[in-house]
Amino acid sequence: MKHLFALDPDVTFLNHGSFGACPRAVLAAQQALRERLEREPVHFFNRLYEPLLDAARDTLARFVGARPDDVVSVTNATTAVNAVLRSFPFSPQDELLLTSHGYNACTNAARFVAERTGAHVVVAEVPFPVSSAAQVVEAVLAAVTPRTRLALIDHVTSPTAVVFPLGDLVRALEARGVAVLVDGAHAPGQVPLSLDALGASYFTGNLHKWVCAPKGAAFLHARRDRQAQLRPTTISHGANAVRPGRSRFLLEFDWQGTHDPTPFLTVPAALTEVGAMVPGGWDEVIRRNQALVRQMRAALLEALGTAPAVPEALLGTMATVVLPSTGEVPRVPFGVGVALDPLQDALWETERIEVPVITFAGQRCVRVSAHLHSTLDDAKKLAGALRRLL
After folding, report:
1. What is the percent of the chain where pLDDT is above 70?
2. CB neighbour list of residue 180: distance below 8 Å, 6 or more residues apart
3. pTM metric for this prediction
4. Closest Cα to residue 363, out of 131, 128, 158?
5. Whole-angstrom Cα distance, residue 132 to residue 97?
6. 172-214 pLDDT per residue, tens
7. Element at 357 (helix H, strand E)
8. What is the DSSP string of 7-59?
9. Residue 332 confidence (pLDDT) above 70
10. What is the C-alpha to C-alpha distance for residues 4 and 24, in angstroms, rounded to an integer?
């Protein structure tokens, strides 16, 4: 199905997890919206934008199991995390709980807010390799104290590709009076979601990754009792707008200044197009991708002679594989705008394989992603290249 995507056919693309990949039909739908906007921008923003936004919100809410009025669009999950952290009423000596598997950008946001408010960042050390879901829950809850006010928990961890036992964590933390902010950047389209049933105070997810919407499409879900204190990072017209029947939460988040709204407005097209690529719709998309990534990981482990770092029950549609020891491990941080591991560059330059090579807990790892454009042969090509280069 790679021809359905706008990917370079000469590249073995095993890094869907970083920025996703957009199908051609979705890009066409976005371009049609852009042309509609540019034909008459004032008409579009003043009269068409809000109904289109509400329709996209309704479609997304059904997909993630939420009420539409509890969901707002944001450009990415990091933006949503910043909005929640900057709105939260921290006092000096309060504790903000993270995990050692957290995403660097969100960790930076947490440390920034802690410095401004006098709160303290506490990091729960979750082991890697991970042996069980219970081990994750035990590590997180062991770091909770009477001063813990908010916990920032990944649903699917970015560097290690672990699907955290989110239901157990949310129930235990919220029962202790700890608000949970779920960084679900990788979750929509990778694992099934039912946000109302989950019950977390806040949940954010990217839609440019596994849903395959255009870059700049994400959402923030806030529980009703948390919405009044929540403000966007950009304060605009909604702060003093009066609209009967429309909450302050929607008024403020729905308009944060002039921007290109087409990525989020294209989400219904992405859900439709990707769901139609296989019989069985999105349930089959997720099942197919999860099965494929297990096959990919098995091929890599066999070729490299290393042990699995995560039990299959904690895998979604990504897998992180520990590489054999080859001496000193490069200390390369995981994120955008940093130097890449020399092995990642070598895989690209010599084999045209795009895959992240990361260092985590002193171990050099490779993270593979599976989506509808992926095949088992992609992973076998990577396995052969790694054996030669290592």
Report:
1. 97
2. 150, 151, 153, 169, 170, 173, 174, 200, 201, 202
3. 0.96
4. 128
5. 21
6. 999 999 999 999 999 999 999 999 999 999 999 999 999 999 9
7. strand 357-360
8. --TTSEE--HHHH---BHHHHHHHHHHHHHHHHSHHHIIIIIHHHHHHHHHHH
9. no
10. 6
